[in-house]
């Protein structure tokens, strides 16, 4: 092998602040970095798949859900993770983009809030030892879904 460049990286194991299930759409990279920083997440285990939390809420194939759940379990086992951040974003190709909602950003946001709730419930049932936070990202900001109203 030929060394391409030199750098020093810490050899110590780290404790993960959160596993982050997120899409790989680069348009929202800055929003992700700012959110993690503002949330105090210094050491994240990124789990990047098309659609982000879609893989837990409404996967195209069950194997996608199982893959993401296993990655979260490995993060717990290897890095002591006790929090998972679930994220989806506007105009996501895995959902068919904004066009799939007839260009209606509000309809898209409502759909994604429902998806985040389904993803969080799946995660809580499958990996109950972690806390879960969810975010929807659009071209104007990062949003957290309002809590569901308590049943009456």
Could you give the distance between the termini?
66 Å
Average per-residue pLDDT, rounded, comes to 95
Globular, elongated, flat, extended or rod-shaped: what is the shape?
A: globular
- Tell me the CATH topology: Beta-carbonic Anhydrase, Chain A
Order of helices and strands: EHEHHEHEE
Strand order of the largest sheet: 2-1-3-4-5
Task: Report the radius of gyration as a whole number of Å.
Answer: 17 Å
**Which consecutive residue ranges, at least 5 long each, have pLDDT under 50?**
none
| Percent in strands | 15-25%
The CATH superfamily is Carbonic anhydrase
Count of domain modules: 1
Q: Provide the helix percentage.
A: 25-40%
| Helix/strand structural class | alpha/beta
Architecture per CATH nomenclature, i.e. the level-2 architecture: 3-Layer(aba) Sandwich
The first-level CATH class is given as Alpha Beta
The main sheet comes to: 5 strands, mixed
Overall description:
The chain has a single domain, classed as Carbonic anhydrase (Beta-carbonic Anhydrase, Chain A), CATH 3.40.1050. The protein is 36% helix and 18% strand. It has four helices and five strands, in the order βαβααβαββ. It has a five-stranded mixed sheet with strand order 2-1-3-4-5, with helices on both faces. The chain is globular and about 55 Å long.
Quickly list its features.
Beta-carbonic Anhydrase, Chain A, alpha/beta, 4 helices, 152 residues, 36% helix, 5 strands
